[in-house]
Write a structure and sequence with these properties.
This protein has 324 residues and is of the alpha/beta class. It has a single domain, classed as TIM Barrel, CATH 3.20.20. The protein is built from eleven helices and ten strands. It has an eight-stranded parallel β-barrel, surrounded by eight helices. Helix 3 links the parallel strand 4 and strand 5. Bound molecules: ligand PBG. The site of ligand PBG has 10 residues, from loops.
């Protein structure tokens, strides 16, 4: 009789058995909640392409951060939505700009109970929507942008960021921000580098979330979706420049890249489950096509299994409450 010699099903036989042998855990402390705060808002403003996510007012931001902390979430990543935009994104450098004000609010609310992070990029603040300043040829001027990033990093550190998150994909950004922080005395402020960031269609809903002014795309600075080896080059550069943590983004469409980066990195690795990943699941759920909680947990588990120590997800607070 040809009965199977090996029976992997034995280890799947009961919930207790499956729990005992599960290789991958998702814990609330590993989740980071990205949050938007809108200058001048008196009420939270819904983001239609991200049902359940809002542009916060200062008050609602404080409340939501306190909820995240009590749910056991590991951190928050703040994005500012300014009222006015200009060519150089000057609101990003203003100590009273929306993001810096939000950082101070959040730190006064949660102190050190959460890791407070800030997006360090100009696209939310520029009137052309690019991640840096434009040169005469209309392309983003890398080195002119670096000077602004350096100053922006210092303002964010001063406002209370534990980790700044440069997301603009300018060459050398981690290094210049590190030296600027050190020179200004912020040697203890860390850098979560958006090390591997692809020019992705999945950022679509984020454009609405930050009222982005962008027309065109970011292909001259974000990576081409077909390239994986290049991710390892970016990793090496960012580690050399002093990144404390590195990130891969988007998550689900790039799990292979995440796994390679996690293998090679000797610092914690984060992955960002971005706006489009959120929107597509919420849309399918709204149509009754997917089971919401199971789908969300499955994606978070996959991102962890691929090697992420930390996962940025718009479901962080909610998922944390189920995971406990
Ligand atoms: C740039 C930035 C973006 C996101 C995070 N930081 C947008 C972009 O690069 O186009 C996207 C996050 C998301 O889609 O959820 N400041």
């Amino acid at each position: 009789m040809g009965f199977p010699a090996q029976r992997p099903r034995r280890l799947r036989s009961t919930p207790a058995m499956r729990r005992l042998v599960s290789e991958t855990e998702v814990r609330p402390r590993q989740l980071v909640l990205p949050m938007f705060v809108r200058e001048g808002a008196t009420e939270p403003v819904p983001i239609s392409s991200m049902p359940g996510v809002v542009q916060h007012s200062r008050d609602s931001l404080r409340k939501a951060v306190a909820e995240a902390a009590s749910a056991g979430v590991g951190g928050v990543m703040l994005f500012g939505v300014p009222e006015t935009h200009d060519a150089t994104g000057s609101g990003a450098l203003d100590p009273d700009g929306v993001l810096n004000v939000a950082l101070r609010d959040v730190r006064s609310e949660v102190g050190d109970d959460l890791v407070v992070m800030s997006d360090l990029c100009l696209d939310e603040f520029t009137d052309h929507g690019h991640c840096g300043v434009l040169g005469p040829d209309g392309d983003v001027d890398n080195d002119a942008t670096l000077e602004l990033y350096a100053r922006m990093g210092v303002e964010q550190a001063r406002a209370g960021a534990h980790l700044v998150g440069p997301s603009g994909m300018m060459d050398g950004q981690v290094g210049v921000i590190r030296s600027a922080l050190d020179d200004a005395g912020f040697t203890g402020t860390g850098i979560l580098a958006y090390t591997v960031k692809y020019a992705s269609a999945f950022y679509g809903p984020f454009r609405e979330a930050v009222n982005s002014q962008l027309s065109g795309d970011r292909r001259t600075y974000q990576q081409d979706g077909g390239n994986a080896r290049e991710a390892l080059r970016e990793l090496e550069l960012d580690l050399g420049e002093g990144a404390d943590m590195v990130m891969v983004k988007p998550a689900l469409a790039y799990l292979d890249v995440l796994a390679r980066v996690a293998d090679a990195a000797d610092v914690p690795v984060a992955a960002y489950q971005i706006s489009g990943e959120y929107a597509m699941i919420e849309a399918a759920v709204a149509n009754g096509w997917l089971d919401r909680d199971r789908t969300i947990l499955e994606t978070l588990t996959s991102i962890r299994r691929a090697g992420a120590d930390v996962v940025l997800t718009y479901w962080a607070t909610e998922a944390a409450s189920w995971l406990d």
